[in-house]
């Protein structure tokens, strides 16, 4: 105990005398990639709507990158950790209630922000088909949901974000080595996306695709009760591929349970409603 007290006193003296002026101090931010699944608009009411993955972007109302689209986010305040900052910014900039918020990456390129050295932390948030009214923050002129497409084409990765007449594109090159545990990208060309947010969005899509195949995260994009078709559509929308019905249903059979209820949608054959099966000890970690 005596040794510990002596050590604490030595530490206090060291901290008082320590000069950190030779080290540049970067600012720290949190940027949030918010995903939600929307039904596509169908003219034929008898046809079951497809699901579309969308990401929320805000249009910046001030410099830098005025009028460009960006992810919701902001600076970490004194006395605040980065996770609390992400939760606060999510509420202040969008007014959305999300049931999943997880950090997935850190971005520290000294040139990523023209103002100064800013290290940002990428967070992924999921919204479960509530379609709440979004509220753009004070520094944003608009907030919109964009359709998401991210595919490899002729050796490059094309990120395409679409909202009605607004189309935003970025071309990325994969720079992963055989030792990397996840894909890495660099920007070849980016159109109307602020900072390096095209890289953050690309990383979030890749991470979501990984999580949806390995965890229960798909249920965070669904209401409490859903059909197996809706669950499959969630997977197909995120993975951007069609899945075989029998194989998919075998895969999820142990993850869901029958509610004993049926859908009552006009024009469609009634379908069984399911819910996520709770694991022993509560929900599995996503």
UniProtKB/TrEMBL annotation:
Residues 25-174 form the Nudix hydrolase domain. It comes from the Bacteria. GO terms for molecular function: hydrolase activity. Keywords: Hydrolase. The keyword Hydrolase applies. Pfam families: NUDIX, WHD_NrtR. PANTHER family: ADP-RIBOSE PYROPHOSPHATASE, SLR1690 PROTEIN. This is NUDIX hydrolase. It comes from Agathobacter rectalis.
């Amino acid at each position: 105990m005596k040794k510990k007290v002596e050590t604490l006193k030595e530490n206090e003296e060291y901290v008082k005398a320590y000069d950190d002026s030779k080290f540049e101090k970067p600012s720290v931010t949190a940027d949030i990639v918010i995903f939600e699944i929307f039904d596509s608009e169908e003219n034929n009411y008898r046809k079951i709507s497809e699901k579309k993955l969308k990401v929320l972007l805000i249009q910046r109302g001030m410099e830098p990158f005025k009028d460009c689209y960006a992810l919701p986010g902001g600076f970490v305040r004194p006395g605040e950790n980065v996770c609390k900052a992400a939760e606060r910014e999510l509420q202040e900039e969008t007014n959305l209630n999300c049931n999943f918020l997880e950090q997935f990456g850190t971005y520290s390129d000294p040139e990523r922000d023209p103002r100064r050295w800013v290290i940002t932390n990428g967070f992924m948030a999921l919204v479960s088909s509530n379609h709440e009214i979004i509220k753009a923050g004070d520094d944003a002129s608009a907030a919109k949901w964009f359709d998401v497409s991210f595919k490899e084409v002729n050796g490059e990765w094309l990120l395409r974000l679409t909202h009605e007449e607004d189309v935003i594109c970025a071309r990325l090159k994969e720079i992963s080595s055989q030792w990397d545990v996840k894909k890495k990208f660099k920007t070849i060309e980016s159109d109307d996306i602020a900072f390096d947010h095209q890289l953050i969005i690309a990383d979030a899509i890749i991470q979501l695709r990984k999580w949806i195949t390995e965890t229960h995260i798909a249920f965070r994009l669904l209401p409490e009760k859903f059909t197996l078709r809706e669950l499959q559509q969630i997977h197909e929308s995120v993975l951007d591929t069609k899945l075989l019905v029998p194989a998919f249903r075998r895969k999820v059979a142990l993850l869901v349970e029958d509610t004993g209820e049926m859908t009552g949608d006009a024009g469609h054959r009634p379908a069984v409603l399911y819910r996520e099966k709770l694991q022993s000890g509560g929900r599995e970690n996503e």
